[in-house]
Amino acid sequence: MEHTTLSSKDLITIQDLKEHLSLLQKSVDEDESRYLVRVLRKLSITRRRINPQILAKLIEESLKEESKTKSLLVTIFPSTLIKEGKEEEEKKEMQIEIEKEEEEEEEDKEKKKQQRNIIIQAKYPEEKAYLQLLSLLQLCKLKDYENALKLCEFSIDFIEKKNRRTLDSFFSKVFFYYSRINEILGHSKQIRKKLLSAYRTSTLRRDVSTQAVLINCLLRNYLQFNLYDQGDKLISKSQFPPNSLNSQHVRYLYYLGRIKAIQLDYTESFRCLREAKRKAPRAGARGFRLSVNKFLCIVQLLTGEIPEIELFMEKDLQKYLQPYFELTSAVRTGNLGDFKKVVLREAKVFKEDQTYSLILRLRQNVIKTGLKKLNSAYSRISFEDISKKLQLDSSDSVESICSKAIFDGVIDAIINHEEKYIKFKEMGDLYSTLIPQKAFGQRIKFCLNIHNTAVKNMRFPEELLKEQEEIDTEEGKEQLKELEKMSTNNEEGKGDFDQGEPGNL
Amino acid sequence: MLEEEEQLKLTPRMELIQYKFLMTLDDEIVPNKKELKEKILKIAIEDKMTPYYSRVCEKFGWEVDEETLNTLKKSNTEELKKINELIKNSEENDGESEIRKAYLNKSTFYCRIGEKEKALELFNETFNKTVSIGQKVDLLMTKIRMGFFFDDISLVETNLTSAKVILKKSSDWERKNRIKVYEGYHCLKLRQFKKAANFFLDSIATFTANELFDYTKFVYYSVLSSIVSFPRTELKKKVIDAPEILTAIEEVPHLSELLNSLYDCQYKDFYRHLIAIYDGMKLNKILSEHRLFFCKQMRIIAYSQFLEAYRSVTLKSMAETFGVSITFLDKELSRFISGGKIHAKIDKVGGVVETTRADSRNEGYKEIIKIGDPMLNRIQKLARILN
């Protein structure tokens, strides 16, 4: 970390960060969580703007000397990072000729010098946690994982002891980074226990955001080591909080989809992955979207459908999805030779993406598609020809493959064992059966149902009218009653005086 | 006036498109690349096409001859000076039409030397100064030709639509027919063979768009696009017996033989000529991208035509009629049948192909279910609002 002066941009950032700290204080004072939420929402932007110098300055000015946070952070971002550049600034002033823009620049600098002297002391743990978080992000940016781990553990202890609900969002973020750093350093196995116990605690405390983050961290941990059973057990025993952040929900769906795919539940997996894709950000998060698309493609092929070509056509992902595109073409044409070639050629890519095991299962699908194509083109074909066409290795296995396919309902055919050929059943005349009638009947019923529901729902204004009428008639009745009263009064009145204005009725 | 119109028609030089394309092909297909290079350079130097010259040298890695480049640049600047003077003069002294002529001059100059952006700008300016519909359309057609020259499809499309809109109100049949030819050429580029065929055959009696391509080429395009899109009866009436086509068809090798062998069911000859035409298509800029598609369609038409006459036919006799091997035929047929293009079934054990008459009722039923179900899903989604 070099010793450099703070640029004017940095000074603006420091100002903003101090504003954030004051917002956090306000949030705790007034017990309004929206300021806190606002600060955290800007975290991704803030993360890009900070550098060690800013942090050093901020730590020095905002934290009290005796706080443990300060003592730890100061070792990481010592205040010697910032040169006291006051003398240099004076030199510059003398050298500058008087020009308009530079005059303004000087004015700005003066202002900032003044503003810098406004010190905000971090009195609440929220602010300390925020500073810890910022330092953590900076360390991760600099890839200083040892220090980051230390800071993480300190932060976790710090926040856990306080047990304040306002610290929940910080807690979840710290845990996320904790899990990630350990993954990078290769210590994932050891932290599993800690994550599980933290999950239990957060559930007890109804800490929604930390719960979500921890479930995702655990699932990621299990998937890294291919512990799909354990992941499945975790999912079945726990309940993912429904009111968590969208980003955590998306991650959860992704992990869920992957686990279901391994467990052969392809329809469920497809549904989860598709939802994850829909909820993921449109631009950005490229790595995530890429991975989701890859798994979507494979799972869709495993369900027996061919993915749409739009899946492969997203501009920034197109290059990386090329092997999957070739795989899909091979499966679509039922060409086993091509399929084998693609798998062999791109084995490395597939293994990296962790889709290799799923792809090996696709071999059956290729054969199925191939048989279906033969079904549509041929009425009778011998086993030898089938083995040649589908590029299967031996013609003996062909018979067994065909019989399995017929049993699974992929094709409709009869095997002639003695003469070694397969005879496909003809489609026949559908109109001579009752099938069209039933199918049409179903659909017509459905449409009529919708029509009736729509009509019913459109009657609502009529009811309003009825109510209106009722109200009117009631009013009319009351008016009549009053009229009668007045007339009886008149009679009792016995006189010719005017009983006030007629409008009194 | 007429002189300018003629000049306008000749820019940009459309032969250059073809030459440039041929240069991009492999050496073995196009052996006379040296001649082509000379031709291109000759035209470029003749018309003083400085930007085009540098572009083309860069693309093909030819050495830029500094001398020629300098002479070209000099002559360009001289001409430009003269033109600008003319414009100034006419703006000060003469009337509207003179000003228009001067601007037209300048835009033609830019178009001729191959400077796309400036030319388009100036054409737009000239367009604003032009009054008569015919001249306006001429300008638009030049822009369309520039679109063809620079492979700018959006330029072509926008100008085609504007030209058609303008021509709707006029009764200038000559220009209307010329626009049809342009449209047909554009459809050909986009593989819309049927549309292209319709456009070409409509304007075949009054072909005047010589600036795009000559009459022989026009007949070549018309026949190719119609042979793949029209059924037999229409093909016979509009193409095989059409006098306009008959005059020029002999000049294109293999074309009339292709047409007649298909109509007369001489399938062996048909295949031979198809291969020759396929090779020819490789050398044509817009057709080369579609040559595989074209071949596939022609094969499908031939096979369906053949099978229409039979209930069942042995693979052996079918292979003999087409002059191909049984394995090849089997591969082709299975590919097309499973793609749903031919209605038949192969009995490999007995070596027979049996045709299945397309039952329109069943087909219609399947179509209804296939198209109707997604639509019902969408209605279902809307119906959720009701609750």
TrEMBL record, chain A:
Protein's UniProt keywords contain Transmembrane helix: no
Region named Disordered: 93-112, 467-505
Keyword list, A-Z: Proteasome
Keyword Amino-acid biosynthesis part of the UniProt annotation: no
Domain PCI: 250-429
GO cellular component entries: proteasome complex
Record field: compositional bias (Basic and acidic residues): 467-497
Composition bias type Acidic residues, residue spans: 99-108
Family under the similarity heading: Belongs to the proteasome subunit S3 family.
Name of this chain's protein: 26s proteasome non-atpase regulatory subunit 3
The organism of origin for this protein: Anaeramoeba flamelloides
Automatic annotation (TrEMBL), chain B:
One GO cellular component term noted in the UniProt record for this chain: proteasome complex
UniProt superkingdom: Eukaryota
InterPro entries per UniProt: PCI_dom, Rpn7/CSN1, Rpn7_N, RPN7_PSMD6_C, TPR-like_helical_dom_sf, WH_DNA-bd_sf
Keyword entries, A-Z: Proteasome
Keyword match Oxidoreductase: no
Domain PCI: 192-360
SUPFAM superfamilies tied to this protein: TPR-like, Winged helix' DNA-binding domain
Transmembrane regions: none
SMART domains reported in the protein's UniProt record: PINT
Identification of the protein by name: 26s proteasome non-atpase regulatory subunit 6
Organism in which the protein naturally occurs: Anaeramoeba flamelloides
Lineage of the organism: Eukaryota, Metamonada, Anaeramoebidae, Anaeramoeba
